[in-house]
User: Fold this.
Amino acid sequence: MNGTCVILDIGGVLEITPKTGWGQRWEKRLELPRGTVNERMRDVWRAGSIGRVSERDVRWAVAARLGLDAHQVEDFMADLWTEYLGTPNEDLIDYVRGLRGSCRLGILSNSFVGARERETALYHFDELVEQIVYSHEIGIGKPDLRAFEAACASLDVRPESCLFIDDVAVNVEAAQAAGMQAHLFENNAGTIARIEAHLDAGLLVPRARAGQASASDMWILPEGGEGSGVDDDVRQE
Assistant:
């Protein structure tokens, strides 16, 4: 294995996370003005993204601030997680899986308390890459430069050897400011081509390109900000 490194975002990159409108449905159900859920919960979403509250704290706040009973809280949180987790970007995941052993692989994700357990159970990202750095576990989120430093430190790699993939421009710019190479995710084909160029530039020994797909085999994801998971306040990836 050479010292070249690829670090990826989750929401909007490894996961396809379109808006589901769950918050608006709850507002309609509770006869609340549009935007009330985020207005009442914004500080909790923020605290959950940097690990300052537990999942139990989140449920308690949802019940207290929105007037929900225990069953409603469970339904509310299930809707939140359905949008947050989205569906797997299978083509990109398969491609990254084929890179194992030929470069260092990591994940850096703006997250929410409880994300590791759910994403591990559903998508096995812990088997896809060597290290996963979640904002709710380190207390720092992108675009803070310290988040990128933490990701590099977790893999014991130099920033300049890393290519960071994210679907939010400000995070791409921050990664570059941290000394990394960075690519704005727009679709699988362009992202795979950029990773290939990065690996070829840093190649020390020949590598098999297992699982490589042609551009014609790739499909394009809908564009969206990194917060295109459950809610921009919940997942500010």
Q: What stands out?
A: The beta strands are 5-8, 15-16, 87-88, 104-109, 131-134, 162-166, 181-184. Residues 204-230 have pLDDT under 50 and may be disordered. The radius of gyration is 18 Å. The first strand starts at residue 5 and ends at 8.
